[in-house]
Amino acid sequence: MVRESQLSAWIERVAAHFVAEGIPLIGGRILAYLLVCDPVERTAAELSEELEASSGSISTNVRLLMNLGVVTKTTRRGRQAAEYRLDVQGWSDMVHRRLETLVRTRELTSGGLRLLSGDPQRAHRLRTIDELYGWLATELPDVWERRPAPPR
User: Fold this and answer.
1) Model's pTM, two decimal places?
2) Quick one: three-class SS letters along the chain?
3) CB 3.0-4.6 Å disulfide test: which of 28, 45, 46, 145 passes with 18?
4) Going from the N-terminus, what domains does the chain have, and what CATH number goes with each?
5) Phi, then psi, of 53 in degrees rounded to 5
6) Peptide bond into 151 cis (omega under 30)
């Protein structure tokens, strides 16, 4: 019982973390729960019961997580309810897309600097941000290539 209580607290910490990433609290709870539940697949009703959330909230947030590519839905012949599971490769793909977005932001800051080329006073803040994104554009692709292989 202590372990389940600790897992419940951990799920709440994970959920709170992902709020800053733009994922609603219940979406973070679903993510955290699907990371550690056994068996790995859960129906919406099971998620609703385990996480003490309304079926509407579960449905809305599962759709969001599916759109992000981190949760997949499966159906089985003879079983009425769909089952949801965490998509580890989808999670990796989501992180990669976020890194690429950071790298592409440099194109925007560089464009702004070109527009302000004759006005160094106005360009100062933008130049500071452009340099940060320039550094990220240089470093992040190599960091991504050095990522460890997933455990077997």
Assistant:
1) 0.81
2) CHHHHHHHHHHHHHHHHHHCCCCCHHHHHHHHHHHHCCCCCEEHHHHHHHHCCCHHHHHHHHHHHHHHCCEEEECCCCCCCCEEEECHHHHHHHHHHHHHHHHHHHHHHHHHHHHCCCCHHHHHHHHHHHHHHHHHHHHHHHHHHCCCCCCC
3) 28
4) 2-86 (1.10.10.10), 90-145 (1.10.287.160)
5) -130, 155
6) no
